[in-house]
Design brief:
Elements lengths: L2 H14 L3 H8 L14 H7 L2 H24 L4 H16 L12 H11 L1 H12 L2 H4 L2 H19 L2 H17 L1 H19 L1
Function: Catalyzes the transfer of an acyl group from acyl-phosphate (acyl-PO(4)) to glycerol-3-phosphate (G3P) to form lysophosphatidic acid (LPA). This enzyme utilizes acyl-phosphate as fatty acyl donor, but not acyl-CoA or acyl-ACP.
Catalytic activity: an acyl phosphate + sn-glycerol 3-phosphate = a 1-acyl-sn-glycero-3-phosphate + phosphate
EC number: 2.3.1.275
Amino acid sequence: MSYLTICYWLMSYFAGTFMTAWWVGKWRNIDLREHRSGNLGARNAGAVIGKSAFLITSIGDGSKGLLIVLLGYLLNETEFSIAVAGALVIIGHLFPFWLKGKGGKGIATFVGVTLAFNPLLFLAFVVGFLIPIPFLKSATLSMLLGYVCYIGSIIYSGCLPVAWPIVLIILIIVYKHRFDIIESYQEKAWKSKKSTL
């Protein structure tokens, strides 16, 4: 492992700790941690401040993931090294040291990382996410199927030996969304039960 790789990985984590939602909230004199879900992500920013905040936060959080991966390719890092960097930038977003580990939930940053890492694998994630939406009527539950398709594509393509750090980070993202997943499932089950009465 080279000194350059270590520096690249450290940079990846610290880049992830740039919380777009926090800065958008500060610009509007709003601490998003004290409103609604308290999450420093695009969804909460949009719910509290508005659509422009959602858009800015999504672009900002997605860009840091995308740029870190592209930097790795520019530095001629190995695919495994880039996958580690992608995982670290998401970890930085989920657990920013300067906010006592209370960050976002990682979806936009994950999108940026996976789009730059391998567009074809990213396409599998998008398809797996979009197809179930009309049936599930839940972005949260559809996202789970998107992750399953992404992981399945990694395994099928033989990329698991180099891409397993991204698979690991998916599990962490799902854990961060555990309450949203339970709530979405219970809401869907309640609606289904109500329709049969």
